[in-house]
Design a protein that fits this description.
- With 220 residues, the protein is an alpha+beta fold.
- It folds into 2 domains: 2-81, 3-Layer(aba) Sandwich (Glutaredoxin); 88-205, Glutathione S-transferase Yfyf (Class Pi), Chain A, domain 2 (Up-down Bundle), CATH 1.20.1050.
- It has helices at 13-24, 41-48, 67-77, 88-103, 106-111, 127-146, 160-174, 181-191, 194-205; strands at 2-6, 30-33, 56-59, 62-65.
- Helix 1 (13-24) runs parallel beside helix 3 (67-77) and helix 4 packs across helix 7 (160-174).
- 38% of the residues are buried.
- Bound molecules: glutathione (GSH).
- Glutathione binds at residues 7, 12-15, 36, 41-42, 45, 52-55, 66-68.
């Protein structure tokens, strides 16, 4: 009934979001992986969605594309899974930071591509990059602070906001980005999830290489 089309686990940050939401909410789904940027990839993608991109989600044969729209759809289909926080004010904040993440942070996206295989201390950190890193840290601290009594995630229990920021956690971890104590603690919470470990382990095993996502300076 639930079918999720994703890209390479090593690289596809957008795919990780709905995949992680489904996993963490215990929703069963079938997974189809399409290796991206090969000769045949675009046609394969277009067979699933007119946008020609992953992720794509099918519920009862109805296609839904774009990671945030997929997460919203899952929240609507499974209200009992509480994909958004339970109070209005936390939902408002969770939606705002999720949308901010979805539409912004282009310097992080362009400079620090998700790559599960990468482990390095990235430098130099430009002013623009540091600005975006600082804003993400501020979002995390503020969200964690508001709901620390109810759980270790951004809004207590795992929510769509955590799914939206998970690729950033993997990026910060890959590139040795310096963050404060509570942000580091949050990153460890995400990195220690069995689902995230599974995603990374499979990503590392993949053999395809996307050259633009391979940053080779300062490898350790
Ligand atoms: N805003 C979209 C972005 C989707 C996107 O850019 N996906 C990339 C992979 S992570 C893709 O499918 N690229 C393959 C292509 O454009 O051919 C989302 O949130 O799902």
């Amino acid at each position: 009934m639930n079918h999720l089309i994703i890209g390479n686990k090593n690289y596809s940050s957008w795919s990780l979001r709905p995949w992680l939401l489904l996993k963490e909410k215990g929703i069963e789904f079938r997974e189809t992986k399409i290796a991206l940027y090969l000769e045949e990839s675009k046609q394969e993608l277009l067979n699933y969605s007119p946008a020609g991109k992953v992720p794509v989600y099918f519920y009862k044969e109805i296609p839904v594309w774009d990671s945030l729209s997929i997460c919203e759809t899952i929240a609507e289909i499974y209200p009992e899974k509480h994909c958004w926080p339970s109070t209005f004010d936390l939902r408002a904040l969770a939606r705002s930071v999720s949308a901010e993440m979805h539409s912004g942070f282009s310097t992080i996206r362009n400079t620090l591509p998700m790559n599960c295989r990468t482990k390095m201390i990235f430098h130099p950190i430009s002013t623009e990059l540091q600005f975006e890193v600082d804003r993400i840290c501020e979002i995390w601290r503020n969200s964690l602070d508001k709901s620390k009594e109810t759980g270790p995630f951004l809004f207590g229990d795992f929510s769509i906001a955590d799914a939206m920021f998970a690729p950033i956690v993997l990026r910060f971890n890959s590139y040795g980005i310096r963050v404060g104590k509570s942000e580091r603690h949050y990153m460890n919470t995400i990195l220690n999830l069995d689902s995230v470990k599974e995603w990374i382990a499979e990503g590392i095993q993949e053999v395809e290489m996307i050259e633009e996502s391979e940053i080779r300076q300062n490898s350790i």
